[in-house]
Design goal:
binds manganese (III) ion, single chain, 204 residues
Length: 204
């Protein structure tokens, strides 16, 4: 199988001013594209070439001889979701099903946002912060580089890319401002709710 770059679900300038067209242009057109190109080259003519992205990620995680395959495959998956976890005029109200679950787990919506912000700002170097569902329980996690919830049998509900390429052009070193803009103005809560409800149905 040859993987292809998933298109952005909105125009490159649609998230401005919170994420500029320049950032999205480089991030999607150069970084995400490079992961796709690299993975296709790495798995060409190997048994992995016929496998799904999820299978490749699980198969290559934590294997020294497959580190390049893992890094590129997981970053493709991460970015495919990341673009959809944002939308123009995002943030705002959380659909009630997910909102109730967040309040039950984190005491309040602000409690969730604080924990997510702490994870995103304290990830040292490149990586991601996540809201995941595991064994029916919501929790906040952070992962280095391209590691993602699939590696731990968790379902990703929300994720933020905290690699500098995701925010440096717009926020320079101010990662906390980027995380705040993500939560307040970019999150696509409908997509997060869709992932949450799908995971709940599969667990039932
Ligand atoms: Mn990225």
């Amino acid at each position: 199988m040859t993987f292809e770059l998933s298109p952005l679900p909105y125009a490159a300038d649609a998230l401005s001013p919170f994420m500029s067209a320049q950032t999205l242009g480089f991030h999607h057109g150069k970084h995400h594209q490079a992961y796709v190109t690299n993975l296709n080259n790495l798995i060409k003519d190997t048994p992995l070439a016929t496998q799904s992205l999820e299978t490749i990620i699980r198969d290559s995680y934590n294997k020294d001889d497959k580190a390049g395959i893992f890094n590129n495959a997981s970053q493709i998956w991460n970015h495919n979701h990341f673009w959809r976890m944002m939308k123009p005029k995002g943030g705002g109200a959380v659909p009630s099903n997910l909102e109730k679950a967040l309040i039950a787990q984190f005491k309040s919506l602000d409690g969730f946002k604080q924990e997510f912000t702490t994870a995103a700002t304290s990830q040292f170097g490149s990586g991601w912060a996540w809201l995941v569902l595991q064994n029916g329980q919501l929790k906040v996690t952070k992962t280095p580089n391209g590691v993602n919830p699939l590696c731990f049998n968790q379902t990703a509900i929300l994720g933020i890319d905290v690699w500098e390429h995701s925010y440096y052009l717009d926020y320079q070193n101010r990662r906390a401002d980027y995380v705040k803009a993500f939560l307040d103005s970019l999150v696509n809560w409908e997509y997060a709710t869709e992932l949450f409800e799908t995971a709940q149905r599969q667990a039932a």
